[in-house]
Fold this sequence. Notes:
Layout: H1 8-19, H2 25-32, H3 36-48, E1 68-76, H4 84-92, E2 97-102, E3 109-115, H5 118-130, E4 135-143
Antiparallel strand pairs: 1-3, 1-4, 2-3
Helix pairs in contact: 1-2, 2-3
Amino acid sequence: MNAIQLTDxxxxxxxxxxxxxxxxxxxxxxxxxxxxxxxxxRVRALEERxxxxxxxxxxxxxxxxxxxxxxxxxxxxxxQRDRVPDIAGELRRIPGVQQVFLIGGERDMVVHVACENVxxxxxxxxxxxxxxxxxxxxxxxxxxxxxxxxxxVGSHSA
Length: 158
């Protein structure tokens, strides 16, 4: 798949929206240094080209009483490998699951969950992961802190 070519202005728009997705067009245009009408057209073009895939709300799980987060590394049974995307979809529907990542390597996916407390996490693991015959192995990592923030689009750190 060919990478989409972005101009410097496109990159600045994407970086600004990644930091604050509900930035008004006037403020975005001022920040990027282009007229509002040009900014609106650029954002629409970025959406149409699939560079901007959507806008979402980032909710703090703690605010909802979900103070324990964990990453569950999952390996699917060998004879179920062709069903990895379907199994990931099933896991995504479990209450408490925040995100599912399909990955390469020893494991097939990483499942991010948020629960009220450690006993609730233990129950979620037993009910939905330990009893799932399609899963060969899981390994759970408790998340102590989540550091968010994006590097500017197109930048590389050493």
